[in-house]
Write a sequence for this structure.
């Protein structure tokens, strides 16, 4: 790449520094969970609140009619580490978000020993009411965050619904204001380095490191 002027160089450096370093605090996310047919729907919202993450499930439909289900057990659901694959490929999401090597099944008497992505284990399965409808579900999870830990933040993840051992629906977890790290071949989608930590010094370090690299490149081109 040839830079024709210092202005171009600086503009490019600015672009590099801007990627993966959103200036806004990450406060809200959502996941529109469904299946390939679109006949199963669950809308998740994630809102950062004092003491944790407020998670709400609304508009739940289709779960009791679309699959050969075990209604009594209800539906398990989790945060999975990878995004959804093509054609609602729920297997592409891989395993549960579990940076602290928590155990499955979750023991509700000792939540800190659970997998942090095991939402159903910690807060209960999605269970239909007598008439087959699903009530809105809402709770505060004290372990999940958009930024921490670095290898277990909610950015770049997905939600998967299970019943009777089958992954029946899934959807990506979208976080407002989050830009994935620049695609340079090293991004795995596992969000190993969420950059919106709110620590400006870290963001500046990343920016200056990028600038230094670009300047070095520019010098070599001369
Ligand atoms: Cu799961």
């Amino acid at each position: 790449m040839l830079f024709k002027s210092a202005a171009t160089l600086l503009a490019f450096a600015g672009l590099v520094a801007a990627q993966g370093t959103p200036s806004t605090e990450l406060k809200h996310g959502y996941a529109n969970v469904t299946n390939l047919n679109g006949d199963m729907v669950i809308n998740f919202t994630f809102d950062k609140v004092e003491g944790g993450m407020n998670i709400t499930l609304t508009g739940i439909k289709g779960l009791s009619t679309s699959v050969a289900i075990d209604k009594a057990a209800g539906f398990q659901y989790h945060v999975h580490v990878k995004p959804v694959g093509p054609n609602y490929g729920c297997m592409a999401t891989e395993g549960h978000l579990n940076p602290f090597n928590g155990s499955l099944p979750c023991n509700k008497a000792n939540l800190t020993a659970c997998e942090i992505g095991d939402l159903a284990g910690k807060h209960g399965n999605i269970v239909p009411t007598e008439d087959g409808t699903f009530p809105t579900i809402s709770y505060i999870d004290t372990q999940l965050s958009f930024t921490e830990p670095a290898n277990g933040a909610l950015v770049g993840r997905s939600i998967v619904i299970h019943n009777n051992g089958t992954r029946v629906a899934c959807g990506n977890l979208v976080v407002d204001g989050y830009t994935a790290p620049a695609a340079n071949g090293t991004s795995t989608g596992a969000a190993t380095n969420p950059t919106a930590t709110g620590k400006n010094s870290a963001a500046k370090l990343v920016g200056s490191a990028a600038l230094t690299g670009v300047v070095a490149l520019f010098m070599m081109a001369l």
Remarks:
- The mean pLDDT is 77.
- The beta strands are 28-34, 41-49, 52-61, 76-80, 137-141, 158-163, 166-172, 174-175.
- The CA atoms of residues 111 and 215 lie 49 Å apart.
